[in-house]
Amino acid sequence: MMNIxxxxxxxxxxxxxxxxxxxxxxxxxxxxxxxxxxxxxxxVSFISLIPSYLMWQVIFDLxxxxxxxxxxxxxxxxxxxxxxWWLVVSLALLSVSTFLLVFNIRQxxxxxxxxxxxxxxxxxxxxxxxxxxxxxxxxxxxxxxDISISLTGSQLLNGDIFASKLTEDIIRIDDKVYRFSFRxxxxxxxxxxEIIAFDITNIYxxxxxxxxxxxxxxxLNEELKAYNLAIDDIVRHKEILQTKxxxxxxxxxxxxxxxxxxxxxxxxxxxxxxxxxxxxxxxNKSNEEHDDFEELAKALNIKLIWENNLxxxxxxxxxELFHFAxxxxxxxxxxxxxxxxxxxxxxENADKIECYFTNDGDIPQKDIxxxxxxxxxxxxxxxxxxxxxxxxxxxxxLIVTFKKEN
Length: 406
Hints:
Elements: H1 9-35, H2 39-65, H3 73-79, H4 83-110, H5 114-123, E1 127-131, E2 137-140, H6 142-152, H7 159-164, E3 170-173, E4 176-187, E5 190-199, H8 201-260, H9 266-283, H10 293-299, E6 303-306, H11 316-337, E7 341-348, E8 352-359, H12 373-383, E9 387-392, E10 396-403
Parallel strand pairs: 6-7
Antiparallel strand pairs: 1-2, 1-5, 3-4, 4-5, 7-8, 8-10, 9-10
Helix pairs in contact: 1-2, 1-4, 2-3, 2-4, 8-9, 8-12, 11-12
């Protein structure tokens, strides 16, 4: 078989190129394995590099010095070997180098290495930085370095300087909002300071929108509350006006009765004048005048007894409703029950306040139905969240219940 020495310059150049490629691949494997601390594989690559380099030197010596006939004895002895064996050895070395290179790439993808950890931390959406007490930065990722450039105008080289710029836990940087957390960690008995920056831009924007909506809803609630109070006032004044109209109608009836009565009927005249007095007093009462309990009771010849007084526990609207209920209870007690004494008492529970109007007049002999003034009073109370009820025993009691606000 033809040996390497007798091959054409083109074929010799092919073997020279092949051996050079083998050298480059083995050198690459050695560097990669050392960087990943796989020292056994780096030694295997170095051992395989030796014959590859030797082959390249022999072929190179043959190409350069063949014409001058100054080839070394080693080159002559090795080039006298058949080219087939050279090819077999070259392919074997190429297979080993290829296997080591592929193995190195696969291990890079499958196993966790310092480089893979760095790549992973550079791609997470939060910034990380670890530094020593003297400010020396041991580790940081790309995002934290960008934050440092935005805050300090320089790269993250000193952890103490960078930490001094973080005066607040939440900082807006450009169009991003970050929340910073600080803690001390210990690695191999060495203390490190850790800073983590969390991107809370979306949460912060949603929080701002919620705050704006909260303010807007608060204003809307105030407007609705004012609107409801206005409606309550309108309804209440309307009911009071209707009551006054009823009193006017009653006075018209009294006027006709006064015209038609016999002037010699003293008892009938006294009764009509008494009714005139009652209705005139009711007609002159204004809804805003609330200090006339005794005056009204005195005008109707009814004695008031206050067992207790919890009016200060009622709000303004509830006090107005109480006065309206008092007027109605006192008027009905005078007209329909011939009452001489009315007992007013209160009872407070965890969720309500009850007002009792108890008179000593005649007990109703039939079922009580809310009509006339009581009907209006019941409707006004229910529209305001209160309620009207009664109790019949040895005395008649009208009960007004106000619910407490939670």
